[in-house]
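## Example record

The block below lists the input lines for one assembly entry, exactly as stored, with component labels intact.
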Amino acid sequence: MIRNRFGKVAAAVVVTGLISGIVTAPVHAASNTIIVWADETRGPNLQKVIAAKGDWVPGYTIKIVPFSSFDALKAAFDNATALTGPDIVVGANDWVATGAKQGKLAPVTLSSAVRANFTSNNFFDLSYKGVLYGVPLDVNNVAMIYNSKLTGKPATLGQMVSFYLKNKAADKLTAGLCVAGGGMSWGAASVLGALGGAPYVMSANGSVSVSADPVPADTVAANIKALFLDKNGKSNGFFPATDTGCKTAFLAGTVPYAIIGNWEWQDYVKAGFDMNLMPVPGVKHGTNGSAFASVSGAMLTTFAAAHGVDQGAKSLLNNFFGSTAGAVAYQNIELRPPANKKAQKDGSITAAQKGFGKAGSIAGIPQIGAILNGAPGGKSYWDLLPAFWTDVLVNGKDPVASAAKMDTFFQANIAAGVPQL
Amino acid sequence: MKRWLKEDLWRHAIALVVCFFVLFPIYLVILSALSPTGSLQVTSFIPKTISFHNFSQLFTSPKIPYLVWMKNSLVIAGVVAILSVVIGAASAFAFSRLRFKGKKQGLQLLLLVQMFPAILSLSAVYVIMSRVYSFAPRIGLGTQPGLLLVYMGGAMGVNIWLLKGFVDSIPMELDEAAKVDGASAVQTYWLIFVPLAAPVLAVVSLLSFIGTFNEFILARLFLVDMHARTIAVGLQGFISGQYASNWGPFAAGSIIASIPLIAIFLSLQRYIISGLTAGSVKG
Amino acid sequence: METLFKRKVTVTLKYIVVTFVASLLLMLIMSSFAKREYAISIFLGFALFAMAITYLTNFSIPMKFFLPGMFFLIAFVVGPILYTVAMSAFHYETGNYISKPEAITQILSTGVRPDADQTTFDIVIGEDAGKKLEILASDPLNKKYFISSLTSKIDLDASTLKIDENGDVATAPGFHALTPSEQSALDAQLGQARFVYSSDYFITIEGGTLGSLKRQTLTYDKTSDTFKNVLTGAIYKDNGTGDFANVANKAEILQPGWRAPIWFANYTKLFTDPQIRKPLIRVFIWTVVFASLTVLTQFALGLLIALVMNRKLFGRRIYRSIIILPYAMPSIMSILIWGGMFDTEFGAINHLFGTHVHWFQSPLYARLAVIIVNLWLGFPYFYLICSGALQAIPAELSEAAAIDGASSGQIFRKITLPLLLQVVSPLLVASFAFNFNNFNIIYLLTGGGPSNTLGGDVAGSTDILISYTYKIAFGAGTQNLGLASAISVVIFFIIASISLYGIRRSKVLDSFA
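Predicted structure tokens for the full assembly:
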């Protein structure tokens, strides 16, 4: 009886197995498809550009995979293996060090024509230990916008503070200067800069100074006491320690100055604001708080070789991502400032895109992940600066002591980070 | 009227305070969905301008295939809810009714497995499914069936545990009678137990449905393609851009997404209350 | 007759289902075997075997009920848990992520460096008459042209060539260019190819038409398992923890490294390294406080409402429908909306109460906010449970007590509450266990913050163990999967013992004995 059942079922299994095997036979992607991963804004825009003109690399087809969010893209790339990973990933410059250490990114060599399109700072952003891993795509930076219906162009930080204190009640201002884009560490870097501090000091030859004091505690604390605190040592409300709600408040006209990101300027234009962009002015006339001007890049992965499209992916980096034609076609849709120098001058690039580019060139510093992410077992800049704002502006701690603590950590990060460059 | 005043007034007072606590955030979601700037922050509790732009965007913008996401969520959550309860109920029945060696250990193991902090399983599940993808791309990483399989695994433990409680509460006499009539365990399960437990199975399905509907951490890794995403992934995408968040469409999308859940909940209210407690109240 | 017919139908149905699933499994076994995923084929093979034994014989009746559930549980829950346990024995972090052979390949490929001038050539990829791969290279700046193969280099005389407006040549005698599709078919081979240039330098193809002058600065010696830097002469040796380290200077390592087994080092680090131990203890205490307070507040409010509405009350249905709402709404939305409400300057809570509390900047208030939000999310569940349980308590008990002269407070304390607790205590334990690992609320509401980073803290004030583990495994900066796995395993032992103790006490498992 038992044997009989087994026999019948086994025969049936073989037959249906064969049939279903044919029906559900695995579909293989064509081996000459280059797969590019990108986030929720760059992905769909790259798709459009590739759909309009897809023959950037003869002999290969290009497939753009847009993710649902930047977070999701990062999570997926963190987990990616050769089986599922992309051939090129469009990501932030601080992925380079991690990606290289994890063996996920592969070195690239660009033609001299492509190299001429970018600054050495841009390449520095996408290199780890002197090896380049990608092509710069767009510049990420912030700039300060002022509401010209309320006030004029300020020359110093002090002017901004006195405007706020004077008109606080009459204009129902909720804050003076706030960070609408980029968060309290990346976006607010220029405020620290305006006060006289920085995560690291760049020397004249373009390298990081190991000897200079990044946060001169006494100077920074004196400026904070004079400008951001009242006589009781509490925040005077000029600069909130959080970025939540800043954009809404600026658009509603209750904040005269805001730091905004170059990816969101259309929202301000739509709401009827002029693009009055500038770096955050410093304490003294003619000085500016420096802001990060980092690039996003199209980076080559080691998976490309495993998929047999290594050459195709390299060609795509040179022919499309690195070329002026590619950069213009893409930035006409993406509307961020292109990293490509020739594309920056192209007639089709909007004034706002150029305005951010200008603010970046006046007061931009490279974003060096090896230093900012912190020494192993230490603290990262990304955690330290928000904690500093909270300590000084919320918890009423002594600015001198807090600035000195931050300074110590920054110096440790510089000492650990510089040898890695 | 008098009694109402004297004895029930304090009850109403407490109930009203709690209702305010519950409704306040919900009111704010509606407020921000209707505001043209769509922010989560309030400048006033009474809207000055009302705009349906955030809602219309969901259905008109080609960038937001909202209805497709909704359909994906309903299908995935629905299939997981039904299949995981069908499979889980069988195990629960065996745990509750059959005698076998190692039953107590099995149950304890099942409970312990539930308590493992599963956040790192993320990497493991990703590795497993990417390997599956290499030989069966239709059920591997990046596909809805693949995600469904993973959810089935995740739902299994909870469901067996919950269902076992419910099965315990169904009187033993009925299956004893069936046994006397000569029915096998399998027959007892199908003919006696399943019809009896139907309302309870429905409640547990509903709970799994909600759990699956809300999940986004795995889903955002699995469902990359715009038209394959679920509503939770889509909504999360609005607010976790590299730098910017779109609260307006997020709020509007969340409100619409909660409507089916709330409708099911309210219509099954009575079942849910009896179902949730049936497991713990014996007899 | 009718039952016999029914039986036949069900038996046939069973065979159809079993056959279908078995053939699906068989197909997957075959294709996974073909793709060398042996672990998966073995697992599926076991599943197929178990299925045949279980459903075609009467080997074990319980297995007939357990098998499908077990399949999913093992594949997607138990499997990943074992994987996590295994990971905890490895040096597995950023920088040590891949296998050793992969790491060697990577080091070799980053060891291929361009020359100081980063010289590039415009090239055409082609073959010689004997179908051997070669390139036709142009250096338009220096007007130099040559053909290079894997074994030789032949300089060409510029005057004999047809040079285009860019200074490049496209053809040469005896050279056959490959079409783009021929090139893409050869992609892997082209990427590996090294064309002769000089004794130190060679040319690699960097996509279609670009050749780059390179040299190998790091060489690998298989027999001694060492790397050598040909420029400095430095020797790098396997240091036993997953890196090649300079023999002269142990701190200098080549990247990337690989994940090497280090057995219990991750666990000992948990207890010996104060940088890890101190925050872990603090986070653990807060996790216990958070989970207990959450369960207590949710239960207390749920019970209160259940008691308040445990009688005919005008509008009870409406109240209940409202109170059930938080349970039915997508929690991701509720948590984020609460996050916005707690904002200091622009949030609804400060606006409503006219306060100026820095909710998410102060550790105490941030913790309070987390508890409040979790209360909102969870009390409807306990309301439902309690109101069901209260209805199930026989009314005679309290009536009898009332006749005996007990006050309503006494009845509640002496009769209702004990009975209720007996019913809900397993659910309280389950809820404690759930909240102990409640990742979403922390991740979405505070992200674990605020953290007193300037004071030297690593973990945030509201970080619970699971969110802290997530930061270690997937956060910005260094991601340490090995250490995070070790923490997961330790958390598991803690929570498992708490729960088992709770369950023993509440005697839930007694009925199985």
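Chain C has four domains: 13-87, 96-105+220-263, 112-216, 271-512. Chain C touches chain A through 74 residues (CB under 8 Å).
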